[in-house]
Predict the structure of Helix-turn-helix domain-containing protein.
Amino acid sequence: MNAARGQDRSKDQATEQDAELDASMSSTLMRGIEILQCFSASDQELSNAEIARRMGLKRPTVSRLCKTLLHLGYLRKTQKGAFRLAPRLLSLNYPVLATMPWRHNVVGPMREMAEMCSGNASIGVMSGDSFVHVQTAGLPPGWPHVPDIGQSGPLHHSALGWSILSMLSDTDYSAKIEEIRAIHGQDLDESRPVMEAAVARCRAEGFCVSYGDWRPELVAAGAPIGRTEDGLYVAIACAVPRYRAVAEYFENDFGPRLAEAAASMRLSGVFKLATPLS
């Protein structure tokens, strides 16, 4: 789960958000999902009180929601009485992944790219203001960050995200930027010059490079692959620890090779670029 979703929100914020909801939406359902989003790799176990504090809700309300999630099998209780996400949540992933059989066809090229840079490779798709990993390859020793299926990250702060954004039409790009701004505000404005330069480079050269923009300890190159027939925007990124990354290699050698690998993936006919690279 994305840790950013688990940030604290005051009762006033919760009340204001509920007031802005479309009358046809279920605030109870939204709060239940928000409880699941409170958990992350660094916050694997949370008490009822901690969830209530983060959500800005009363403990009895959180207790009732958590009891429902326990009944459905999406939460489990520890011996200490705290909550953890339950394995049954993984069953929700399978129908989504089953619609992406092409994931298995790109594993070979991904492994080749991971070996070439002695790092990790990941394929991601756009989901709201984020990207989500749907396939990964490579696991070198001493790796500071191991991407895994289901992990997400920001579109506006990462090589993978920039590569995805580069595939949007001007109209869709503007709409997506407004969506990101509504969520991230000033953070988007501060990072926008770097983001827009990377998006422009993806459109012109087929790749971009991030020097710790998302994770300070990583250097990553990303490349747009294309859009699937069912509307998913797909990109690839490869990363290495920053302490052993050579900028000249990423800029002049690996980046162009990654762009070529993405182009070869498009030969399958599964992925298409709306606007050919200039």
